[in-house]
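Example 3.
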Amino acid sequence: MLAAVRCILRRDLLLAARRRSDVFTVVLFFIIVASLFPLGVGPDPALLRMIAPGVIWVAALLASMLALHRVFAADHADGTLEQMLLGATPLGVTVAAKVAAHWLASGLPLVLIAPLLALQFDLDQKSLGTLVVSLALGTPVLSLIGAIGAALTLGLRGGGALLSLLVLPLYVPVLIIGAGAAEAAGSGLGGEAQLLLLAAFLVAAGAFAPWATAVALRISVE
Amino acid sequence: MSLLTDGAALEATALRCTRGERTLFSDLSFTLRGGDLLRIAGANGSGKTSLLRIACGLLEANGGAVRWRGEDVRRLREDYSRELVYLGHAPAVKDDLTARENLEIACALGGIAAARVDVRGALASLGLAGCEELPARVLSQGQRRRVTLARLVLARAIPLWMLDEPFTALDPAATDRVRALIAEHVARGGSVLYTTHHEVPIAAGRASRIDLGGGRP
């Protein structure tokens, strides 16, 4: 089973490495969306500092949304998904490996680039650290929840728009708590409580989402 | 030598499949034991692929059941698919990966332990020597098909093979090779369930045939 997990992780990262443009699109989208806000609302440092965590979180959420439809679409189109459904490994485990690879290729770059974006907003050291940690804990949750939606909308016409409508409302708690963490840290309250909540979300999503996704995939492939 | 000495059998009882308003087949039963070769024949749209997908557990039948070793395959899940190779319509070959990588990954997913030398040997035996390190993007339709079929060379120990149109896009030499692979597998005591439009005689084991008829009314 471990060999299969390793194989899927390696395969999906190899595919991402050979299609680097997909990764760059997501990162560039993130950078552009987050940069539009300082241009739009004006250069008032106090205001920018206030909206920074929310803006960066919303931008990260939209960027991860952009990559979401790719989790299963290509494998569905070329028949690999059928082979995964008929694989020797339980489907939930296969899905978990795929989501992990997806996050490494599309979520982790967002976490790493976020500190640079935060500079535009003049975010202080303390909130910056909390923001990065909240993104590191929160974006995998987005990938895990999003995978359920991606599996449900697989092969549907206009699946992309439907996927957004389906998944974005589910992202709301993660957004509120994630952005709240950095705000709390900035105001001196400390964001530990929110970060712990996010970690709890991650554990819960990691335990249940792959199995829900597996069920959704079986339905979609029928 | 027989792989299926324990008498494992695939039993389909009273299968019914409907697509929309149309009944593709109903009350279809068959049993597949070690050494059986079963060909599903029929016109386009007669439900050959649906039957194969029902047999491997991807699709739920509208009636009836498929049992492997006496248990419903939809309940067995990976315990069943570990003993099954299913090669569907879609080649399951990734454009951005090389032929070797594609085959290695397909084997890992299917739980077939294969060393790199074996993988190269399997590709070579289907006439892909020299193409191992080429990305699948540059391979022809028939060559991609061969990459998929090369898995059969490595899947000797897996009792049940289900092949959907295995001879499509293959040249005569590759067709002969695949035919030999199927015949060897049946002689070994494995079972093969396949669909084809091509009249490819395979002389091996107990060959039988299900005719799904003319398809669309």
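Chain B has a mean pLDDT of 88. Helices of chain B lie at 48-56, 73-76, 78-81, 99-109, 116-125, 141-154, 172-187.
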